[in-house]
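ligand=GPV
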Amino acid sequence: MKRDIQILTGQVLAADCRKTIAQATPRELYNAVSKAALDLAADAWKRAPGKRVAYLSAEFLVGRLVYANLLNMGRLGEVQQMLLDAGVDANVFEEIEDAALGNGGLGRLAACFLDSAATQGVPLDGYGIRYQYGLFRQYFEDGFQKETADDWQRFGDPWSVRREEDAVTVQFGGQAVRAVPYDTPVIGYGMKTVNTLRLWQAEPFQAFDFNLFNAQKYAAAVRERDAAEDISRVLYPNDDTDAGKRLRLKQQYFFSSASLQDMVRAYRAAHGGDFTHFADAYAVQLNDTHPTVAIPELLRLLVEEAGMRFADAVQVAHDTFAYTNHTIMPEALEKWDQKLFRGVLPRVYPYVKKLDALLRRTLEQRGVPMGEVSRYAILEDGMVHMARMAIFATHSTNGVARLHTEILKDTALHEWYELYPERFNNKTNGVTQRRWLALANPELAALLHDAVGDGWLTDLSQLKRLEPCADDPAFLARFMDVKREKKRQLAAYVEKHEGVRLHADFLLDVQVKRLHEYKRQLLNAFSILDTYYGLKEGRISRADFAPTVYLFGAKAAPGYVRAKGIIKYINELAELVNGDADVNGLMQVVFVQNYNVSYAEKIIPAADVSEQISTAGTEASGTSNMKFMLNGAVTLGTLDGANIEIAEQAGAENEYIFGARADEIARLQEDGYDPNAVLAAEPRAKRVVESLVDGTFSDGGTGMFRELYASLTEGASWHKPDHYFLMRDFIEYCDARLAVNRDYRDARAFAAKCVRNVANAGVFSSDRTILEYARDIWHV
Ligand code: GPV
């Protein structure tokens, strides 16, 4: 019998705070509804027998869990009605902070994979770190980014269960800490499968060392506790860059070791002490190199705790592990100083050395010339090269979009591809349509329900049946109504959170993603400034221009000075444009603060244009590009990452593609590229770039803008000028953008393009991706 979530919620509230639903605070209500729902999921939350996948990831950017879980449980409508009946706003849980245990695409991909695996019945558990503080919260002060700590647990964490009985010990050099798992159910759509997200928290063995305390060494006792807790204190805020910090290595080993100990213990309980068939019980996916220290750790456990020979242990590791690469950017490829590594992980380091020695013997046997060995070696120039270890010791290395995998094979990891071609494979990323369509855009979901039914919820390829609707005026009218409504909702939200009145009747052009030079938010800003001048000076006809909101959302890593300079620049641009009454009816620039998963759920469904303008060859895949497509935005982008596959699926005539392709960029890198020649030849380019230094904008005396200017025109010791080819693509980008604007004026034709995007988004479901991993890599 279906149990009543209203009765359960009422009972929890009565027991916990002696209040009714109508009386409870949002936070009390959140905890009660979540507990009630957790209770309803309890029966389905049990381990199925058979092989399991462990998805090891330093990040799980799950966002807000309550609505997504209720949706998958089939309880969302019921809870919304319950709240309505009690006179409570159905959006009451929007006060609940996101669980931002990730930086960006990589962490959000892991969260989409959890949802898809549970929905598709793939027995996959996530393993990671229960950071006390997630990604910093961002606000702007005088246009500059400021950061504050993200104390996400202050609302409670009702979706997790502490499993004291499964705690393990993780040993560093002279320090031993307890790893205590917190399990969160991962509820598949329809609740047929409930998997587990197991996040480890670091704790001292005793809250306090009383010997120290009694000896009046209070500070020492506290220090010991803090040193343990520090390990899971905070998420590193670098996206796509490697900080190489000691504490980061400790974090990586902490969750890798704890997760493997967990698996080894369960294996022993089920199969006894013979570990030769470990890979039949577990497939372990390494989400980038962050958990790669798991490889020597498994070798250590197999040799020292299961008595296995090293060579046999290597075979087990090879069969068990697989590695996903998420970038070719050299600054993100993890390398650890050998001394640091050995100092922090003295028990593990010998196994890294043995692997390195095995690799060197293998290279020799394969006839790789001595002079080439240094390109492969795990231990080389005083560093431990993690990606090399990951490729050598696993059976699969995959990229995350077709172009990305081709670049890995042809250039970035070419020498490895020559050695092990059979290990390389592509798994183009995807996103979960439950959160990114059903939950974020119920209005569009309802329209799809009427047009093609609800099968797309678990089989996104069914959206293809929408294709004829792109020629149906009545359908297009309804689609445009949905867009209008989503813009209206977004405008209300932005007004509340930013104090800005967003023009809900304008074309909405959006770039939301981490702030990084390669993603080229600065190119976007330059183009807006060029449009502004064009409108003011009559080069662009005001009468023909579709009024546009340019919306940005992005966090810069706190130590990434250039990225912070770009944020300040865009905020200065916003002030210029929004403060000019002459263009107020035509342009608005808005940079929202604290862009996160929940904000994305508001912004993406409202967008008309999805800005995906990275330098070709730099964005491994992108995943927001897929979310925009699914919600009916056209892509204004370069042929980079998954944009290529998006344009291929939807048809290039339904996107706006511009700029140099990856092969041209590679050629320019080889043969030389001179941005100053572009600046000399193209006054429009020169004018916007000069705005960094000619007094148009102020960086508050920080020198940030002059540094940005120098990065474009002079370069630096580590970079050539305009390393990301903004000037190469500037005019083409401006032209493509004007083409979008022109086309937008034919509202129905534009809506038809949007609908064709929705209809062809089927392959970009993470359900498809996860089923490919299951079939090709995990064999489950
Ligand atoms: I490496 N990515 C990320 O978010 N953080 C990282 O540390 C690394 C990669 C991203 C890539 O930049 C995106 O192109 C990609 O879509 C995403 O990972 C998921 O694969």
